[in-house]
Specification:
The chain is built from seven helices and 18 strands. With 345 residues, the protein is an alpha+beta fold. The strands form three sheets. Strands 1, 2, 9, 10, 11, 12, 15 and 16 form an eight-stranded mixed β-sheet that branches. A five-stranded antiparallel β-sheet has the order 3-4-5-7-6, sandwiched between helices. The protein is globular, with a radius of gyration of 19 Å.
């Protein structure tokens, strides 16, 4: 995380591993991945053990009662602080009573017998969303110190990435900057897959984080110039004015974006091109941002044929869970995938 005048970059988030949980042995794999990450980030042995316990409870619940359960182990890095985040998502059967699921002694697995209450106590923050018959998603974050507010504060935007099958790294990436009156989102879908695509999107993230505040079309033009000599890719920037309640959006290539509000989905326009290679036109468009609106951006690893009724609770759910459930439900293509969600307030 860096500060440029009054603008702050949110922490760098890396989705370290996508781990299926369909067999007993895979529970141990999740625990080992989470604790190994905590050790790399400098967590104390006690805090690392707490993360291991929570990872075991989360993945055991998935194994026993979910279908197609997956755990994502994520790292968050700022200038001083770091965090481990565990995201779990499945395709059913869902939980009818979320309040009951958090109570001790109400384990959805019947194994550990402590339910998800232990996870909530061990985590710095923890949230869950569920639809009976559709599936459940949970996010638990673990800071170095359980009760300390991290340097980046509360986040109003979050994303998630998933590599194509057979690759360890994702060629899609995103970054977020905020100030008192603005929230700016950037996404890059590196051309192709694997390390070369990831190198292009990582270069876009680095430039975006280093730039001073600029209009989105100027940012995209700078990204286009920066990505020459790389694979290039699709890029998009959404600049959200929290006072005027507007979004100025500039997209080059196949990044999809929309404003969700009042039960409607309003798409935003990206023009054809490949940043770093071809850009006949770079143009920004303005959109209204109603109260309680949510802004969504995603790469072409997701189909655009999704509606507001497929998205989790836009009012209550944290952005990371909205992004995760949208990836689960619309990420039907065998491709790198990225979703970024902002709830401007």
């Amino acid at each position: 995380m860096e500060e440029v005048t009054a603008t702050t970059c949110l922490p760098l988030v890396r989705d370290e591993a996508w781990l299926p949980v369909e067999e007993t042995a895979q529970v141990g794999r999740v625990r080992r991945a989470a604790t190994a990450l905590a050790e790399r980030l400098g967590f104390s042995p006690t805090r690392t053990a707490e993360i291991g316990l929570a990872a075991t409870e989360i993945s055991t619940n998935l194994h026993k009662h979910a279908r197609q359960g997956v755990v994502v182990v994520r790292s968050l890095r700022g200038l001083r602080d770091a965090a481990v985040e565990i995201v779990a998502v499945d395709r059913g059967p869902g939980i009818g009573d979320l309040a009951l699921a958090w109570e001790d002694g109400q384990s959805t697995t019947g194994t550990l017998g402590v339910g998800l209450g232990a996870v909530a106590r061990l985590a710095t923050s923890c949230s869950m969303t569920s639809r009976p018959g559709v599936g459940t998603a949970l996010v638990a974050r673990f800071e170095l110190l359980r009760d300390r507010e991290p340097e980046w504060g509360r986040e109003s935007a979050a994303g998630i990435t998933r590599p194509i099958n057979g690759e360890d790294v994702c060629g899609d990436a995103y970054a977020v900057r905020r100030s008192a009156d603005r929230l700016t989102l950037m996404m890059c879908d590196g051309s192709g897959h694997g390390p070369l695509a990831a190198a292009a999107s990582d270069a876009a993230v680095r430039l975006f984080r280093d730039l001073p505040p600029l209009p989105p079309d100027q940012v995209v033009a700078r990204l286009h110039a920066e990505l020459r000599g790389t694979r290039g890719g699709a890029v998009a920037v959404a600049d959200i004015d929290l006072v005027a309640r507007t979004v100025r959006y500039c997209g080059l290539g196949n990044i999809a974006a929309a404003v969700l509000a009042d039960g409607r989905k309003q798409g935003m326009i990206s023009v054809p091109g490949v940043a770093g290679h071809q850009a006949r036109t770079i143009r920004a468009y303005d959109y209204q941002l109603p109260d309680k609106a949510v802004v969504v951006m995603h790469s072409d690893g997701l189909t655009e044929r999704w509606g507001v009724d497929q998205v989790s609770d836009l009012i209550l759910d944290p952005p990371v869970l909205i992004a995760t459930t949208l990836l689960r439900d619309a990420g039907v293509r065998n491709d790198d995938a990225c979703v970024l969600v902002a709830r401007p307030a």
